[in-house]
Amino acid sequence: MAIPSRTLETEFPDLADSIRHLIQDSIQFKNDRDNYHKLDKVIRGLEERGVATDDDHFNELKFQRARLKDQLYMQAKHHKH
After folding, report:
1. Which domain of life, per UniProt (predicted)?
2. CA 49 to chain centre
3. What pLDDT is attached to residue 3?
4. What is the pTM of this model?
5. How far apart are the first and last CA of the chain?
6. What is the rounded average pLDDT of the residues 13-17?
7. Which residues, in sequence order, are CB contacts of 67 under 8 Å at separation 6+?
8. By CB distance 3.0 to 4.6 Å, which of 7, 42, 62, 76 could disulfide with 15?
9. Residue 1: DSSP 8-state
10. Are 39 and 65 contacting, i.e. CB atoms less than 8 angstroms apart?
């Protein structure tokens, strides 16, 4: 069963314009967003294969994704365009 991706635009639809502007204006934001999407893809692959939820590597990846998501959210929320 395919697990849907968690794009920033679908997670935060009210910030979609800010996210698009930041992708164009900030190399750091774009790189962090790309890393977020890479982590999400890896995590979804592990979930689809039924990895144990107590797996340390799996949990570390989820923690990294959550941390990046929080950082990206804060930047998008405070972005003025």
Report:
1. Bacteria
2. 20
3. 76
4. 0.87
5. 39
6. 95
7. none
8. 76
9. -
10. yes
Secondary structure (DSSP) of 18-76: HHHHHHHH-HHHHHHHHHHHHHHHHHHHHHHTT--TT-HHHHHHHHHHHHHHHHHHHHH
Q: Are 44 and 5 in contact (CB under 8 A)?
A: yes
Centroid of chain to Cα 38: 8
The Cα 43–Cα 62 span in angstroms is: 7
Identify which has the larger pLDDT, 55 or 63.
63
23 touches 80 (CB < 8 A): no
Domain ranges across the chain: 8-78
The answer on pLDDT for 81 being more than 70 is no
**For residue 79, which amino acid is it?**
H
Token pair, residue 33, equals 């967003």
